[in-house]
Amino acid sequence: MTDADRFAGGAGRSRPPGLPALLSSDRLGALPTPSLILDEARMLRNIDRLRARLAPHGVVLRPHLKTAKSVEVARRVLADGTGPATVSTLKEAEVFAAAGVRDILYAVGIAPQKLDRVLALRAAGCDLSVILDSREQAEAVAAAARRADDPIPVLIEIDSDGHRGGLRPEDPALIGIGRLLYAGGAALRGVVTHAGESYGVAGEAAHAAFAERERAAAVAAAEALRAAGLPCPVVSVGSTPTAHAARDLTGVTEVRAGVYVFFDLVMAGIGVCSTDDIALSVLATVIGHQRERGWILVDAGWMALSRDRGTANQAVDQGYGLACDVEGRVIGDLILAAANQEHGILALRPGSTGLLPDLPVGTRLRILPNHACATAAQFDGYAVLRADGAAPLAQWSRFGGW
């Protein structure tokens, strides 16, 4: 079996005619709580949505695998089993390369101490590229490339919105770094940017504006490099909000996005998806009540859902997560209002006019996460509700580390 065969295909997207669907409660009944639940049908729908959205633009989709950290998920996300893919840790690069992914972008500014691992991955047959935004990094990469006689591919990080790292397109250092890499033994592959500030605005129009800022900054940087006689074959942009809203990708060669595979309450809160699109949830059990306080206690606290409060500054604060019944249907305004290490406190959202539901001890619930990356990181595997509704529950492993 080839690497592409290993990754292609994956799960069936419909069940054979005549087979009845199994209720989620039937399939989840034997699981311990808390458990991380993945709804494969929702995940596949999310994957198909972005592929279809970008297809008319003629750009390559380079999915980010940092949330998934799972070979089984990667099989379904990557259109071609060998890549292209994006990662945020070298551990991710090592695991996915061992599983057959051959085109990987390590999208965190390179630390010189990590270059031996980069070179080892490349020597094993993975076309791993790195990013940087300083002369010091460029000198380290060029020196390592010369020592190994391996022209490490580099993308220069561009700041398109003041979110984090990167150079402004007009910064003279851009050309200096490009020349250092080009003449120093590395391979100048292109430019890369990420509109992280798009997470702070809501609505397609606002995300489209950030998408244009991404595009304009990356293309301007690429044009500056080319005008200086330097190569810039790759112009890489992307975030989940901008990937779904971009209207013009002229000059862009590839788009990156990651959390779109699962979505979460932060993405729902800024209008990129609905709660019905969120493919990850945490299975929990009701373990008690404080009725005079309007509390329902569950056995999933911040060790299961993380301390991420990403919706706190949005129009709707979802606490630590939004409660659903075991079939995945949202229960009114019931949120995880507070979280201790292993205890979660469900309560009605402040201002709600609803009634606290009657949920006896032993009732199983599913809680949608604020931030899919942070919640998934608390678990070493997914309990998968297969897209084929007649299939039994599957277990897919995930990994952590750096």
* CATH architecture tag of the largest domain: Alpha-Beta Barrel
Rounded to an integer in angstroms, the radius of gyration calculated over CA atoms is 22 Å
Detail the poorly predicted runs: 1-16
Strand order of the largest sheet: 2-9-8-7-6-5-4-3
Q: What is the CATH first-level class name of the largest domain?
A: Alpha Beta
- Topology as H/E string? HHEHEHEHEHEHEHEHEHEHEEHEEEEHEE
Number of strands: 17
Q: Averaged pLDDT, please?
A: 94
The structural class is alpha/beta
CATH topology of the largest domain, anyone? TIM Barrel
CATH superfamily of the largest domain: Alanine racemase
User: So what's the overall shape?
Assistant: elongated
Number of helices: 13
Name the helicity range: 25-40%
InterPro entries: Ala_racemase_N (IPR001608), D-amino_acid_metab_enzyme (IPR051466), D-ser_dehydrat-like_dom (IPR026956), D-ser_dehydrat-like_sf (IPR042208), PLP-binding_barrel (IPR029066)
GO biological process, one term: D-serine catabolic process
Region (Disordered): 1-20
Protein name: DSD1 family PLP-dependent enzyme
